[in-house]
Design brief:
Blueprint (H helix, E strand, L loop, with lengths): L2 H18 L2 H9 L3 H27 L7 H33 L4
Helix pairs in contact: 3-4
C-alpha cells in the first residue's frame, strides 16, 4: 500500500468518525428522542453499511470500473465494526436486564 492510499483511508476514517459523532447526533440528543428510536436508527445505519459493502464487493467481483479493492475492504471493515458494536450493545442490554431481574423485590 502506498503512502497516498494510506492517507486516503485515514481521511475516510476521519470523515466517518466526524459524521458519526457530528451535529446530527447532537441534534437528535437535544430533540429528546427515545432510546428505542436511537437503537432503530443505529441498526438501520448498520444495515445500510452492510448492504453498501456487499454491493461494492459484488461490483468488484463483476469487474465493474471504478471499484477498487481497497475501497471494498474498507467498506467491509466499516460494516463489520458497526455490526460488532451493535452486538456488544445488545450483550450489555441483556446483561443489564438480567441484573435488574435478579434484584430482590
Amino acid at each position: 500500500m502506498t503512502v497516498s492510499a494510506i492517507q486516503s483511508v485515514l481521511q475516510q476514517l476521519r470523515a466517518t468518525a466526524q459524521a458519526a459523532g457530528g451535529a446530527d447526533s447532537a441534534a437528535d440528543a437535544v430533540a429528546g428522542g427515545s432510546f428505542a428510536d436511537e437503537m432503530k436508527k443505529s441498526l438501520a445505519r448498520v444495515s445500510n453499511a452492510q448492504q453498501n459493502a456487499l454491493g461494492q464487493a459484488q461490483n468488484f467481483e463483476l469487474g465493474k470500473p471504478g471499484v477498487a479493492l481497497n475501497d471494498v475492504m474498507v467498506d467491509l471493515q466499516k460494516a463489520n465494526i458497526g455490526f460488532q458494536m451493535s452486538l456488544q450493545v445488545r450483550n450489555k442490554l441483556v446483561a443489564a436486564y438480567q441484573e435488574i431481574m435478579n434484584i430482590p423485590a
